[in-house]
Amino acid sequence: MVEGSAKKRDLLGSVRRLRCVLAAIVLDANADAGDLASRAAAVS
Prior knowledge:
Elements: H1 2-29, H2 33-43
């Protein structure tokens, strides 16, 4: 039971993180290529 809820929490955290990444990608797609490259370098 406890293990299942922990996995569910991890999954929700992963989905939230993925949404943040996708939102950042969409925002960066609206920026020019130079800005996109600098942000990608800063994130990684």
